[in-house]
Fold this protein.
Amino acid sequence: MFEQNQEVFNLLFEAISEGVVVVDIKQNIVIANTSAEEMFGYDKNELNGEHLNVLIPNNYHSGHGHHFKGFMKDREKRRMGLGRDVNGLKKNGTIFPIEAGLNPFEVAGKFYVMAIVIDITERKNYTENLEQIVKERTKQLEEALNKEKELNELKTKFLSLVSHEFKTPLSGILTSAILLEKYKLTEHQERRDKHIKTITDKVQYLNNILSDFLSLEKLETGKVNYSFKTFNLSKIVNEVVYNANMLLKEGQKINYPENIEGVSMQFDEKIMELALSNLVHNAIKYSPENSIIDIVIEQDKTTTIFKVKDEGIGIPKNEQKNIFNRYFRAENATLTQGTGIGLNIVKNHIENLGGTIDFESEENKGSIFTITLPNSPIK
């Protein structure tokens, strides 16, 4: 076959950097160049006379035979495996991706096929890495878009909240201020006191909302500076209960925790008061008249536990998963004033200091909120 111009042929055959494998119509390898031998891990001339299947993974043998027969029938140049993965098999059993172009030709009345083979391992790795990078980047963009969408939703909720929560008390303040002008006589003092109290309460409510927003901003920007010291629990509880007593509805009662005199802990005192106040105020706000609010405190050598139990409206089961989300308010609480950020703020502070906050609740039966704190918090 290659007797004429043998030197020229050998020179050209070996000069090609791609692997070249020539097979006859029975798929026996007639000759392979050095590049092909090195690519598949064979020694010089070791492939000559071998069946082409030695270069093809076992699971492709039957399919390849069918494609080869079809190719020999058509005898047209084609790119092997177009639109599908094609793999080669090294002598050591390694399977690797290849690209092969098939070229039929005839010499002395005999038909042969020349396969030009390229190892595309690096190209495929690059493509796969690129695809992975694209996937990761796409995921990052999707997360960024979702975050922006969530932020826009939060802004909408915030504006709606501000509009409602500020407008209502401001209207009450304006009304009471106008009515105060009408009560100028001494015998009108009781009515004046009533409207003065309304103004005072609503201003205090607005002040609390602004404090919550400022706390939220500090948490968002990481500007919170915690201050730790040892203090008696009775000091905090007394302050919380004293302020809460002014908010009690008709017949409501707060049960003071037992056996806490002389009990102390090391923590941020202001944060502890903020957290306990939030839970007690919520218990009062969402509980009916003539109900009981229990404050229970337990402590061992490492942990202090605060529990606030009420007999209020409770939290619907299907909404409990969202109770600590910012601006969230359960459906059965929408008629009661509130911003929906108090519990979110408390949770962030408590978790920042190594504690946890959890709850149990049943609609129309009440809730128990539990704060668990290390006696010496993580600083």
Observations:
- The chain has a mean pLDDT of 84.
